[in-house]
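FW: tagging you since you asked about this chain on Friday. Here's the raw sequence from the shared folder, copied in full. Didn't touch anything.
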Amino acid sequence: MTLDGGTSNGGTSHREAPVRTDRTAADLVDDVANTVLSISGIAGLHGGEFGEIATYLPGRRVAGIRLGGPAGCEIHVIALYPADLPALGEAVRRYVEPIVDGPVRVVFQDIRQPLADQVSAEKQVPS
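HL: got it, structure written out here
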């Protein structure tokens, strides 16, 4: 990968969307959640062992994202197996950093098989 967001194999460069400055806290959390969930290899967000990792908004809570203002944010994710965790963590940081203030910390809470693999594994009869 090159520093400008392009790929070293001749792929097209990725231009970041302009950062909105008029977002509410709910807009910001929704933007972060949608961005993270759109990354290939991410199965979902994870709220931690006791559900302690979350952003609380009026009338709802978004598990797996803890915003900290200039201190950055913490994102707890579930990866799909097989996963290259360092590359996946870097992808999450690369796409989320333009949206939030400060650094992005990525924590892998779990790794899951893709849904099709889970269904076929559950249907197998033990020998």
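FW: The helical segments are 25-37, 85-96, 115-123.
HL: agreed, and DSSP finds three helices and six strands in the chain.
FW: great, closing this out.
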